[in-house]
Specification:
Number of strands of chain A: 0
Radius of gyration of chain B: 31 Å
Shape of chain B: globular
Helix content of chain B: 25-40%
Largest interface: A-B, 86 and 82 residues
Structural class of chain B: alpha+beta
Helix content of chain A: over 70%
Number of strands of chain B: 32
Strand content of chain B: 25-35%
Structural class of chain A: mainly alpha
Number of helices of chain A: 11
Oligomer: heterodimer
Radius of gyration of chain A: 23 Å
Number of helices of chain B: 12
Shape of chain A: globular
Strand content of chain A: under 5%
Order of helices and strands of chain A: HHHHHHHHHHH
């Protein structure tokens, strides 16, 4: 493992690492652009023969041309859908390393790019385990969302009032579940990266700090809503702009914003990781006695586990 | 406790997010429903044809009592019939359509084909005729029911799994009791009338399709012994109750007195002319002339909303909490009354009742009866979809194509369902714009698009054929509803929207209170559009329809003066001397199918210029267009304005001499959407 000198808590912020944000966005945009290539080629194989290109597919006429294209190219589209799904699955695995790299870059003083990659690779197994936990949590929350309508319809006649209550409660409960679950996993990820802890231990530590999880969830909520808002702005750009280039720029700016917001949440998780780790041997050993807790972690100490191994 | 700066930052992000969500939702919002002025439809040369009053053939005077606990209706009354045939009448044919719900062996259930309307489940239903008697002078009654004979239609329909020679599924019982022949003791001369006394007992089925009960909700259609349609030649147009077709009757008047528990709200055909309380019961009398059926509903939880559109009183009945749906239904009905009235003649009745059944009885939704329609949909309509509007407009349209232009639904269902689907799309475009099926910002999906795909995805059988001849319910739905609308819209765009609209308007007015046949329709097109249009319509509607235009080849090359030996003294001309004389281009266009329509071909040239030509194929399968001039031909596009939605594949409608078009829009959108997924699936 590559040693990494930790950034003091007070300096942990996404805005201090613009290159990290840009790198993560560029990587994500590149993956999307590459996966979109096959779709574009398939459309181009047909509409390359049309002097107006594929514009007719997307605008006007009640989507008549798009419907014809989908029907005639159904087998190819199904194959493309499958290959895109595989591509995204591979990205899902690769993104764990990206996550490790981003957390590492946020948590540490600037290192050469290769060392961040090496750290990310070293953390991969533990972050993958936490990703699995995250996936289970997401599925559980979404599964829980389905329980509501099933229970509703099983109970007999549906009334608008009952439906409204059930929908609001279901959406709220699922959102809170996803937010809290996400905060637990993010905190655990931060502990893993910042203190080189094992995944299980980090997860338990996060679970044992409900106040920190609550704090992180509270800090995440406006950022999640802002990210949704950026999707809204992106949709509005698609509706109102006619130039493909302008739409692309607007979409990518929104994408960059969403990456920045996510990085900001991760930075906050890293800030809270020290508090979650208080009392643990590694931290006690790393910090000098008598230093106030809030500033001890800010002293730029290097965790033993984070040294080369 | 968050620091002030952090709190401020969070608040700003929250505000940004909420604004973005609001902006996004707003940008994808469907157009607001507004009830505007109708389209101005110019009459054909010579003006609109006169609208005739119906020939009254029947008069029903019925009294019915609903027991909502047992879900039974007991009825009695008188039926008057005037022999409008040219020959004496020797028998009656009665439809007892509630018997279609009696058991699994009825034609309705055994020949039920997949793909059209909902599930059949729950308690059965039936109608027991207690009395059918001929009323003589002085009121004496002569029993007719004892000599009745159930008419078997076993094996007549290709959809029927039973053959004519098969034994009944349960020995000793009839498989289908929906069509009954009743001999008359004496001939009824042409022009003479008879009066029948009837008494009957209905056991309503649990709602599975169209009619019945669910909880305390009751929808009562096809509920009384009803005379079949008497034709001019003295034959009865009588049919068993079929899964996909049921309507064809004589015009008459209905005077129906309904007896329901006091707390029940009633909706029925015709205006309420009298109401009174009798103990804990309420008695309502509804009277309507110039109609050919009567249906009603009763529920103790209906919320009533009364509105007015011109001279028409609109009554909307819906479950509690459905205000948003009712708003949309009201806008649809008002727009429809205006638009359909302008196109096909004003709605001739004083009342219109719109029933939105509760969710649990949704199978009663989407049906049409004279002056009463049922609609349906969720209480909170999905963002951007227009299901509620489409169903409401469709059922309202049936007041014209079914109610007034009363074609035989069994013999050619396209005459009402298909024509009505065509009319529905015109009204929907007026109401919500191009996205008649769904609007999501700039992405507008039209029903025409769905109809085109559906119409070509199933059996390509003729559109104008009897309902029981279609391969299955899905094919029936797609051909009768979808393909008719697509074919008529194609004719409309190909022969001029104004002329075609005027022609359909003239047909609807001429055939008001009549029972037109396909020939009447083709004659109308020939009269008010052109013979050519009528021929195209006949090909599109009566033959297995395939129509596909394609550009097969495009060539362009520089043209030089001719080379070679043209006379001996000069020998061979020097190719170097043959100068450039412009470009020669050719386009080969193919047609699959027999429908002959004017087709626009757009030629695009390398210098950006465009030329359009209109061509006809006649009986040829292909044709070639040549260009000759200073500009190099680049590409050819057949039907660039989508004048021929019947063309089943538009992806082969264009071709270029080389790859000229970009797919940058697809690339951008795919990148944005996959980027969203990558963000969700990734870190």
């Amino acid at each position: 493992m590559v040693s990494a000198e930790r950034v003091p808590v007070g300096e942990l912020a996404a805005r201090r690492r613009p290159r990290v944000v840009l790198f993560a966005w560029a990587l994500e945009a590149l993956v999307a652009w590459l996966l979109a290539g096959s779709w574009s080629e398939l459309v181009g194989a047909v509409y390359g023969q049309h002097p107006d290109g594929d514009r007719a597919l997307w605008w006007g006429r009640g989507l008549v041309d798009a419907a014809d294209f989908v029907v005639r190219q159904r087998p190819a589209l199904q194959a493309l859908l499958a290959s895109t799904a595989w591509g995204l699955a591979l990205w899902f695995l690769a993104a764990i390393a990206v996550l490790g790299g981003v957390l590492s870059a946020l948590s540490s003083k600037p290192l050469p790019f290769a060392q961040h990659v090496a750290r990310a690779v070293g953390l991969y197994g533990r972050l993958a385990a936490l990703q699995l936990v995250s996936l289970v949590m997401v599925l559980a929350c979404l599964g829980g969302l389905l329980v509501f309508p099933i229970a509703l319809f099983a109970s007999g006649e549906v009334s608008p009032l009952r439906e409204s209550i059930v929908v609001v409660v279901a959406v709220l409960a699922t959102s809170i579940g996803l937010l809290v679950g996400g905060a637990v996993v993010d905190l655990a990820r931060a502990i893993v990266v910042r203190w080189d802890a094992h995944a299980g231990r980090a997860f338990l530590l996060a679970m044992r700090a409900p106040h920190l999880v609550g704090r992180l969830a509270t800090l995440s909520a406006p950022r999640v809503i802002a990210a949704l808002g950026l999707i809204g702005f992106g949709a509005a750009a698609s509706s109102s702009l006619r130039s493909v280039f302008a739409i692309a720029v607007a979409h990518q700016l929104c994408g960059l914003g969403r990456v920045a917001l996510r990085t900001s949440v991760l930075a906050r998780a890293l800030r809270l990781a020290d508090d979650a780790y208080v009392g643990e041997p590694e931290l006690d050993a790393a910090l000098s006695p008598g230093t106030p807790r809030t500033s001890r972690a800010s002293a730029g100490a290097t965790a033993p586990g984070a040294k080369a191994s | 406790v968050p620091r002030p700066r952090e709190a401020l930052e969070s608040a700003a992000l929250l505000l940004l997010g909420l604004c973005g969500i609001a902006v996004g939702v707003r940008s994808l919002a469907p157009p607001k429903l507004t009830v505007g002025a109708p389209t101005e439809i110019a009459p054909p040369p010579g003006g609109w044809p006169a609208m005739h009053e119906p020939v009254p053939v029947t008069r029903y005077e019925l009294r019915a009592r609903l027991d909502p606990e047992l879900h039974v209706v007991d009825g009695e009354g008188r039926i008057e019939l005037r022999n409008v045939a040219d020959v004496p009448l020797r028998e009656l044919r009665l439809h007892l359509y509630l018997n279609a719900f009696k058991n699994d062996a009825t034609l309705f259930r055994r020949a039920r084909t997949a793909g059209f309307r909902g599930e059949i489940a729950g308690a059965p239903g039936l109608i027991d005729v207690k009395k059918l008697a001929l009323v003589g002078a002085g009121g004496a009654e002569e029993d007719l029911w004892a000599k009745r004979e159930i008419v078997s239609h076993r094996g007549e329909s290709p959809q029927d799994p039973l053959r004519a020679e098969d034994a009944p599924p349960v020995p000793g019982s009839s498989d289908d009791e929906t069509d009954v022949r009743v001999p008359l003791p004496r001939e009824v001369p042409p022009g003479a009338s008879i009066t029948l006394a009837v008494a009957f007992h209905d056991e309503l089925p649990e709602i599975s399709e169209r009619t019945g009960y669910r909880g305390s909700f009751h929808f009562v259609g096809q509920w009384f012994p009803k005379l079949a349609k008497l034709e001019r030649d003295g034959t009865w147009a009588a049919f068993p109750f079929h899964h996909v077709a049921e309507f064809y009757s004589d015009f008459g008047s209905y005077d129906v007195t309904l007896d329901v528990p006091e707390k029940f709200v009633v909706g029925a055909t015709g205006p309420l002319v009298e109401t009174r309380r009798e103990g804990d019961r309420r008695i309502e009398r509804h009277v309507q002339d110039r109609v050919h059926d009567f249906a009603w509903t009763a529920w103790d939880r209906f919320v009533v909303r009364d509105e007015q559109e011109g001279a028409v009183k609109i009554r909307l009945l819906a479950p509690p909490g459905y205000e948003r749906a009712v708003d949309r239904e009201l806008a649809s009905v008002k727009t429809g009354l205006r638009e359909l009235g302008a196109r096909y003649g004003a709605y001739p009745y004083d009342v219109l009742t719109v029933v939105h059944p509760p969710d649990v009885a949704s199978e009663a939704g989407g049906m049409e009866y004279p002056t009463l329609i049922t609609t349906g949909g969720p209480w909170w309509p999905a963002h951007g979809t227009h299901e509620i509007e489409a169903v409401t407009v469709h059922e309202l349209g049936h007041q014209w194509f079914y109610g007034l232009v009363a074609s035989n639904e069994v013999a050619w269902p396209a005459g009402d369902e298909g024509f009505n689907s065509f009319a529905e799309q015109l009204v929907m475009r007026r109401l919500v714009g191009e996205g008649t099926a769904a609007s999501l910002g700039p992405l507008e999906l039209s029903y025409l698009t769905l109809s085109r795909q559906g119409a070509s995805a199933h059996f390509e059988e003729p559109i104008f054929q009897p309902a029981d001849r279609f391969a299955n319910g899905a094919s029936y739905g797609m051909r009768v509803y979808g393909a008719t609308a697509v074919a008529l819209e194609t004719l409309r765009r190909s022969y001029g929207e104004a002329r075609f609209d005027a022609a359909i308007g003239a047909y609807a007015r001429e055939q008001r209170f009549a029972h037109p046949t396909p020939e009447d329709f083709f004659r109308a097109l020939e009269t008010w559009v052109s013979r050519d249009c009528a021929l195209a319509a006949r090909a599109a509607l009566t033959t297995p329809t395939t129509l596909d235009f394609s550009v097969e080849r495009v060539t362009a090359a520089p043209r030089h003066a001719p080379k070679g030996i043209f006379d001996r003294p000069d020998r061979v001309r020097d190719p170097q001397l043959a100068g450039f004389e412009g470009f020669a281009g050719s386009v080969w266009i193919a047609r699959r199918g027999v429908v002959d329509l004017p087709v626009t071909v757009e030629l695009r040239f390398a210098n950006g210029t465009t030329r359009r030509e209109t061509v006809r194929f006649g009986d040829r399968a292909w044709l070639r267009l040549d260009t000759d001039g200073p500009n190099e031909l680049l590409a050819a596009i057949v039907d660039p304005d989508l004048a021929i939605p019947l063309d089943r594949d538009r992806t082969n409608n264009f071709l270029a001499t080389k790859r000229v078009g970009a797919s940058s829009v697809t690339r951008e959108r795919a990148t944005a959407w996959i980027g969203l997924l990558a963000r969700g699936a990734g870190w």
